[in-house]
Amino acid sequence: MSKRASKQAQAALTTEEQTLLAIVKAHPKGVDIEDIKIQLDGWNDNDILTHMNQLSSKQYVDFMTLGKTGKLAFKARSAEEASKTGGMKDEERVIYRLVKEAKNSGIWIKQLKDRSGLHTQLANTVIKNLEKKNIIKWVKPVKTPHKKVYMLFELDPSTELTGGAWYTDNEMDMDFIEQLSTQVYKYIVMKSFPQKVKDAIYPPSHSAYPSASDIHKFISKSGLTTVPLGVPDVQALLDRLYYDGKVTRILKTGARGGDPDRMDTDFDDDEDEDEFDDDFRDGGERVRDLDKGDVWMYKAVKGSALEERNAWTEVPCGRCPVREFCKEGGPVNPSNCRYFKDWLAAS
Amino acid sequence: MSGEKDRLAKAILLEHFGPIVQKVAGGLLERGRSTLVVLVRRLELSAKQVRECLFILIQHNMVTYAESAEGSRMVVYYQININAILLRDRFPLYMKAVRQKCGEESQRMFTEILRHGRANYPLLAANAQGPGMTRDQIADVFKALLDARVVVECRPQDSVTAEDQLMSEEAAEVARRGGLPLTATEMTKLRRELALKRDQYDDGVETGSKRKVVLDLEEITNKKVAVNEDPEQDPDKYYRANFAKLHVFLRNEAIARLAERRMNASAGEVVRKLLSASEHKMRDCGTEAKSEPVSQIMLSSILDPNIPLPVDGRPPGFSGTLDYLESLMQDDLKLVTKESEGGGGQFSVNLKQAAIELKARMMESVVQEKFGDAARRIWRILLLMQKLNETQVNKFALVPLKTARHCLYAMHNAGLAFIQDVPKTLDHSAARTFFLWYVSIPKSTTQLAQSAYHALANLKRRRATEIEARALLIEKMSRTDIIEGDAQLSESEAAAVENLNRVVDQLVGSEIRMAEMLMVLEEF
């Protein structure tokens, strides 16, 4: 069907159809047949369904099922969408609907084919067609780069798929993270020790240590990066420094309670069979971190930089790749060990 | 574990006492509690040699004996204490600790005690006399050692095997109660009572020989005939080093250094003095979980006035003690805790936590050196969060899943991270199981100690090899004409000597550091 044809179809709505469409349009979340009957006097089920079928074939209405009861309901399509899908073939429409339902988390190509119920060959051509018309597009999720995931062309993929600010071209950008955290660490160090007196400490009541949003402001102002970072991203960066032992956190006075010793470790205990569930769960965690707000102030830790070296890894045995075989009198033994030889010759 | 320990113990004995003593001690280590006859037959040495070796080992507090009646004869069993051998490697550390606590002269006297194992006062006074020291000064030096309790008097029981002491005490007690076999509950109760009694008795010894309660008649008669007015100088009294106390000193110093690194020298001083206030009551590293509380005011008065406590924004002349104490409380390490509010706040040091922290820092450093920064972060995350699965680890550490997995398995192989499986179904199918990662400091301590024993024994072996390879050169060096300067070493020989010295120094230095590491792992 050409575009012109669809316009003709639109023009060709009967009065009954127009009345019905007005009612359906009034319910953006969908309306079922009972509700329609209440609003239209003298119509029986048959009339409604006949006209509804007409509307549907003219691309004005979608069929849907309501809630868990599985009741049939109807939903109006926007004019823009109606014009976009108006010219589609039925099989194209099926694929379009599935892709649209998946929103910005996308639908995996295999699921798309299965759920559409179309023959693989046909589904492939249809998908290709839609891609060509710039109606749908595919992206590679970071977690499962081998899976093609489809979504509507105009949508931005969700952070679950792109991995968020830390991913460039589907790979975690370690250099970027490293550099940014070094800068953040320097900033915290600057704020953690008094400048005036050498080797002095701030009194324990000191409360001008930076919080996550302070650091977020610092990053945005400094122009360190062109990648837009949210407060949760900065939080992740700070957590990383905290786990590194480079900074410590202090409960902000006046912030709402919680045991400062304990980290927020209470995960939801949903069954998470596959990786995707995992992702959603972690995403939820991130949100919780966010609404904790600025509970913590961050302070640099002295002595984390100057490594206390341990004796064991300094001697060759601590780094020995054949330690398991090392035995006096065996083929690998301390008396003729070449690692020892190198070590003793080196210094 | 015991294999590595035995190997190291034998290496130490060979170095300190030579091959024959090593052989006898080796026999005891391998076979356990034995009689003289068994040892003689097994080791193919003469009875005289074995007996003399045992004498040396007893003198140096490594072997204990027990007499037991077998039929009509008395049989003497000998038993060796491996830990007493292993700690010989840490003598330099002990000597340093004594020097810090009691001064240089005391250290010299302490070294004499280490050299003799057990020594009486006249011997020590004769050997430790420095140039121009009066008799009173020597007596003072000795008293300083006794007061610090790094040296204690030997008791006859010290040479009797602890287990046999226990058994004979128990038997005596049972006999006193009528000699009938006791029920299990009665026996447990009895054992508890005896343990309590022993503890009290040990306390008595710990307080120094001067205040010791006179326990037997023999001692009273000795006292009557004693020529010296000072009972400590009685030539019949022998003294030995008290390593448990030295461990306390060394641990406390390590804790103070931890605070120093974490904050600054002033914080280190605060912790040091906080510990020293109750140091005299600590008998060994395992007993107390916390040091005794000290009030802030009291602490201020004992702090070294030469170390200022700078705090930003406080007026000059302001005492920073409280600020420092509270900052230490606020710190992640939680070294200092507040016990009560009295006297401006009573503070104590959390010894148990500090000991764990010392070990944790060591493991962290091992993880970092062996597996890199990412692994260290992951290790710390697991330490903080207890148990996590792989995807959580990668999320928190902000590293790619592949790296996280790689680090985790590398640490698992090295005994620094462990897996706990939580099956979802009864069939324990791997597909339906959570695999949670965790780290455990006690578990890793054992693993790391094992590796450290191995490495230390290797270092010793290597040093022996290096010296053996240059045996001819060393022999030449000790020739009289070389020493007196009549003949000289060739240029290449001189270079070889220098190289040998450098290599041996490097190995010895590493050995001491390894021994220190083992001390932290095993004793603190």
TrEMBL record, chain A:
Which GO cellular component terms are attached?
A: cytoplasm; nucleoplasm; RNA polymerase III complex
Q: What is its main location?
A: nucleus
Q: Please, which domain of life does this record's source organism belong to?
A: Eukaryota
Region Disordered, annotated ranges: 254-279
What ranges does the record list as Acidic residues composition bias?
Answer: 266-279
Q: Which InterPro entries match?
A: RNA_pol_Rpc34 (IPR007832), RNA_pol_Rpc34-like (IPR016049), WH-like_DNA-bd_sf (IPR036388), WH_DNA-bd_sf (IPR036390)
Gene3D superfamilies linked: Winged helix-like DNA-binding domain superfamily/Winged helix DNA-binding domain
Phosphoprotein as a keyword?
no
Q: Which UniProt keywords apply?
A: DNA-directed RNA polymerase, Nucleus, Transcription
Q: What subcellular compartments does it reside in?
A: Nucleus
Offer one example of a GO biological process linked to this entry.
Answer: transcription by RNA polymerase III
Its family remark reads: Belongs to the eukaryotic RPC34/RPC39 RNA polymerase subunit family.
What task does this protein carry out? DNA-dependent RNA polymerase catalyzes the transcription of DNA into RNA using the four ribonucleoside triphosphates as substrates. Specific peripheric component of RNA polymerase III which synthesizes small RNAs, such as 5S rRNA and tRNAs.
This one is known as DNA-directed RNA polymerase III subunit RPC6
UniProtKB/TrEMBL annotation, chain B:
Q: Which GO terms describe its cellular component?
A: RNA polymerase III complex
Record GO biological process = DNA-templated transcription
List, alphabetically, the Pfam families matched: HTH_9, RNA_pol_Rpc82, WHD_POLR3C
Q: Where is the DNA-directed RNA polymerase III subunit RPC3 winged-helix domain?
A: 364-439
Q: Where in the cell is it found?
A: Nucleus
- Domain RNA polymerase III Rpc82 C -terminal, first and last residues per copy: 142-288
Superkingdom as given in the UniProt entry: Eukaryota
Domain RNA polymerase III subunit RPC82-related helix-turn-helix: start-end pairs: 8-67
Q: Which UniProt keywords apply?
A: DNA-directed RNA polymerase, Nucleus, Transcription
How does this polypeptide assemble, per the annotation?
Component of the RNA polymerase III (Pol III) complex consisting of 17 subunits.
Return the similarity comment: Belongs to the eukaryotic RPC3/POLR3C RNA polymerase subunit family.
Q: What is the protein's name according to its record?
A: DNA-directed RNA polymerase III subunit RPC3
Asked if the record carries the keyword Transcription, the reply is yes
| Claim: DNA-binding is one of the keywords in the record | no
| Role noted for this protein | DNA-dependent RNA polymerase catalyzes the transcription of DNA into RNA using the four ribonucleoside triphosphates as substrates. Specific core component of RNA polymerase III which synthesizes small RNAs, such as 5S rRNA and tRNAs.
Q: Name the species this protein comes from.
A: Geranomyces variabilis
Which Gene Ontology molecular-function terms are recorded? single-stranded DNA binding
Q: What is its main location?
A: nucleus
Q: What is the lineage of its organism?
A: Eukaryota, Fungi, Fungi incertae sedis, Chytridiomycota, Chytridiomycota incertae sedis
